[in-house]
């Protein structure tokens, strides 16, 4: 059975290996230079990265983010739906393989391959990007590069891409099994995987490790502040905690209770025409601070990177296992 | 005699619709069984239940003495050639044989390779490039070479041209002669069934209408034509399958164990095709009344 | 060696046709004592017919004492039908001629004669079976 699975799978595996190898080679050639640069320049490296390396940085991010989705769509979804479509599952099921074993082998081989591909890609990209990541965590300016904890970069570093790939693969298999047609299953896999990838950083990841909380004063010379939503919301930027991932903010009043930004602040900022001047903003912010308002910021510090990585890996692998159980139940009970 | 297939009150429901119900069967071993009936009557459902591709909603089914697809041992006993004979398009003919060899405990590799050679198939050919007839032959080879006790074929020749159909049937019959193999095949071609089968099951409207040895069925059914009359006047032991009347004449198809002595009837023997058509044509509600008398099992 | 063929229009079951073809060949002298009949497997393959059907036909021929199966070797013709009936055929044919002439005199055309013959033949055959 392993032989058959491999025989059916080897073209896809070869294509993926070739792509991973090509990427790894490219990164291996350009990586050492970046590491040297970090050794000499430290955190100011962020200003000295060549434009081609910058392109590579973003390409690497995109590739690692895309690999699990591609695996789910092109390996997972067709794995069983294509057999159901053409009826070839009958061939195996009547040639002395129980359908549970058939599923187990297919899932096992596929999941191992998926995790290997995503793991190797992530390893190569994480290694290549590590000088930049370290520079950012060390206080380098962050407007060009993502902190490792930033949701965009987090899913493209460390071990979570492996878990993402395993989950996407099993998700594709499960949807293929239920939908029974390849193309709709591929589309559904992409949509559902993307939805999960958006939902997890918003609602789940912030709670996977103990968050830090700090209160910053609202003052012109304090932490930089953005004023949003018609001066109804204030967002503070934690520049003195590099690499942190701010998960939520709350304005507090003089009593230390959560409160809305008072309307006096908006009134203060109102102008006859055009945006308020810098001096006017400073004055209004100082007035707000004088009223006792402060900004409470909840964030994951850069040091939580690995505990968040392992927790999320566990979460996704758990989801993948649950889906595997569902597939096993479905193939025994619900498939013709 | 041991039964190769035994069903008791077997039924399968898809959502609201029963694809097969109240199915009682006892098919003896060593027979070539033809399963006939119109499209959508439940033939495929019965076959898929028999090979374990489906699980019953009601009743029980036992194949070669075990629950279908209950384990590796049971899977090895029953071969199944699915409708349209699917094969792995990307794999070569030789790969398919390799696959059977690795998966089936009782695989007869010499026989498989010999068959492929006799069929004139190129082992390196990708199965997706085979003609319909060749694909069917490849699927049949996989079914035969695993050396099952029972080989189930779902409309194996429906999509084939007459020549390919003939060749397929020749191969199948040769395999039956060579190995002690029971066959259940579905077909909507009664002429094929008459030639290749010795036992027939007629399924119409999700019900088994009649099942039995073909020779017994042919010997036990007659067409009676005579002056118009009521059907109540028939002696016991004669069961009307279909009846049609004109203002002067009554024509009956009856099943009887005894000879028809009434001299006012003109008695004609019926061929298998006529018998099958009679069962297909009769109203569905007639099934229940006559069912017990229809079990012709030896 | 005899080669079988099936006629789906004959109204006879495949096994009856096989029996009939052997008897016919014996009657016409195409098969003689000691000739071997094709193996069950060969017939099954060549005609795409159920081997059980062939077996059944051979068993009936054996029962009638026309052939004998020698295990592992084949089925051989043990008796021919040629001479048994040849002698009787002449007088019967004469009778039939006389009957046909009578029928024509009575005004029956060819079709009516055939219908009469077939229906009478069938009804007597039916009685035999019953």
TrEMBL record, chain A:
Transmembrane segments: 56-81, 102-128, 154-178, 185-204, 313-331
Domain of life: Bacteria
Entry keywords, A to Z: Membrane, Transmembrane, Transmembrane helix
Name of the protein in its database record: Transporter
UniProtKB/TrEMBL annotation, chain B:
Ubl conjugation recorded as keyword: no
SUPFAM superfamilies: P-loop containing nucleoside triphosphate hydrolases (SSF52540)
Highest taxon listed in the record's lineage: Bacteria
InterPro entries hit by this protein: AAA+_ATPase, ABC_transporter-like_ATP-bd, ABC_Transporter_VariousFunc, P-loop_NTPase
Pfam family membership, one: ABC_tran
Single GO MF descriptor: ATP hydrolysis activity
Keyword annotations: ATP-binding, Nucleotide-binding, Transport
Residue ranges annotated for the ABC transporter domain, each copy included: 5-230
Protein name: ABC transporter ATP-binding protein
Organism, as annotated: Yinghuangia soli
